[in-house]
Amino acid sequence: MKRIALSLSACLLASAFLAGCSGGSSASQDDAQASSSLSDTQLVQQSVESSNAQVGDTQGQQNAAAAASSSLPEDLQDLVVDVSEQPAVGSSEVGSSAQDSPELKSRISAVVSPIVEASGMQIGVTVIDLATGERASIGGEQQMYAASMIKLVIAAAFMDRVEAGTYSLDGTYTLQADDIVGGTGSLSGMGAGASVTYRELVERMIYESDNTSANILIDAVGMDAVNAKAASLGMLSTQLNRRMMDEAAVAAGIENYTSADDVAKILDMIYRGTLVSSDASAVILHALEMQQDSQGIAAGLPEVVFAHKTGTLSTVRHDGGIVEGDHPFVLSITCGGEGFYEGGANTAMAEIGAAVYSELANS
Fold first, then answer.
1. Residue 148 lies in a domain
2. What is d(CA 161, CA 225) in angstroms, rounded to the nearest whole number?
3. Are 258 and 265 in contact (CB under 8 A)?
4. How far apart are the first and last CA of the chain?
């Protein structure tokens, strides 16, 4: 995290408080190895995935989302948009107010494409100029393994339950022995019997990419609810198919998916305070501002507040966040493909971050 001024999350929290008073409302090798039984929704999703590909087609994603919705419990089906009537992946009409801009895309492509080509990797880049609401996607529709970027929509689905009163962020959870998994995060080191608040679970899942916290929150809401939330937001490339560190699922070829476009979409909503509610958005934004992983995009930015989430597997490295300041913008980058290696991905993301910042700051 880099900061020079009062963070946006502090402003959102203050705004939410005033509304309530007036009666209103290091890199994370997180999922390098990943055992739960498959739900009907997961089986539907897997039927449209190729055995080895990390990139999916838009129509397949729409068909999967529609089929998944029909298999959900009745109390969750009303959370899912009718994807047959929604724009394709990459459109700005669902969930986010950002509008595609040919002019912005031309400018961003001019500075980003040479970096992508030189990297030899498959890279997706999505930019949303938060000052104008314009969006540019350079390969951002490409579906890749999500790694820990999936934790953004897990947080959103859990905050739905908080808003509904099912859970309280100040409520406590007692860690069980079978909750503890490896990978990133410090919660596992606290041991069985430790007591943590749900707020802490959400925050740890984001800023230190804690896998144990993520699995507890998945179990709290159910995997189907997480996928329903993604669909309701128009995140049609995003699928949660397994829990964190589920080795049996990974061995069976089961993975989670997202895209740079989808990550940018949810970050845009967080910034505008429209993800679930202004309160919920502020909680997630605050966790993003505490991010401990300073590689990737952050390494290419000047001293600004960068509220972001990273994700890493042996085959992918992603970063996506909100650059706060005088000219705020969202930048989401996914890296994978045959030429992938983590060091190269970090370098490319830092270079893209610097290039996009310079382009927008000087506009």
1. yes
2. 10
3. no
4. 24
If residue 100 lies in a helix (H) or strand (E), which one and from where to where? strand 99-100
pTM of full prediction above 0.85: no
Exposed/middle/buried for residue 10 (C-beta within 10 Å: 0-12, 13-18, 19+): middle
Asked if 34 and 245 touch (Cβ cutoff 8 Å), the reply is yes
Residue 330 three-state SS = strand
Question: Residues 162-183: pLDDT tens digits?
Answer: 999 999 999 999 999 999 998 8
- Token reading at 311: 């994700």
Q: Say if residue 358's pLDDT is above 50.
A: yes
Confidence of residue 11 (pLDDT cuts 50, 70, 90): low
The three-state DSSP-derived secondary structure of 29-90 is CCCCCCCCCCCHHHHHHHCCCCCCCCCCCHHHHHHHHHHHHHCCCHHHHCCCCCHHHCCCCC
Joined tokens for residue 141: 């529709």
Of 279, 285, 236, the C-alpha closest to 257 is: 236
- Any idea which residue has 């085959």 for tokens? 315
Question: Tokens in use for 89?
Answer: 């992946």
User: 291 and 1 in contact (C-beta within 8 Å)?
Assistant: yes
Residue 1 lies in a domain: no
Q: How far apart are CA 122 and CA 69, in angstroms?
A: 30
> What is the residue whose two structure tokens read 């929604």?
86
Q: Does some domain include residue 297?
A: yes
| Domain total of the chain | 1
Tell me which residue range forms the domain holding 209: 8-361
